[in-house]
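Quick one, T. Sequence first:
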Amino acid sequence: MWVRRLVLAGAVLVFAVLSLPLVAEEVLSNQSVVKMVAAGLGEEVVIAKVREAPRTDFHLEVDDLVELRKAGVGERVVAAMLERNRPAQPSPQAAMEKSMGISSIEVSLRAGEKTIPLAIVRGTRSTAGFLVWGNEFVNFQGLHAKVRVSERRPSLLIRSNGVTPIWVHYSIGKLDVDKKHDVRSLKISSPRQNFKGSYMSPDTDWTVPFEVAEEGEGLWRITPKEALPPGEYGWYVDPFTGLQGGGIFDFGVD
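Structure tokens:
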């Protein structure tokens, strides 16, 4: 008897779970923007929402723009909507690399209203310790990145040629400043993780969890899940990911 009751209870639980409404991913539309403006939310708040929404469905033909203006949507908000709708334009080099099956990305840092292109920096490897007790690092010359921001949750805008998804073989690395050797170091293997990162990802303690949002075809926004403490960071490319492998698009947070 108790077996039948247990089976019945399990069936009821499964039915209840399957009956729960699915939570749809938020899609920001023209109506959503008008609603926020009508509610009295400031331009900065609305613009931030436009930029950070996981998905958008903006209609921005001439008549749509006129309707937005009549509804009281300001020029800066409309400009942010237009920018979000703009398709990514791959560079000639990226198009060539894609045709050859070579992964490549272009990275910019977005902080506030500023978008700053980042250059890739190459590193050299070093080890500390002995055999299986050792740690392996990638070292980048200089104690500080040239590009620096004060915003604690800056976003990375990444244009990809689509050969390798940007969430595969890439990570936000936390760099340790080594004043003695004038380098910033990223640990990529350690005994703790059984050398999981020897050839691929950095040590997980040296990375930052992030959120991924598709801005448009071939354009992605990467945002740290939490505020970044002051320090040195970068978008790290695993060694075997195309011609950029082993490099980092570095930046600093003050």
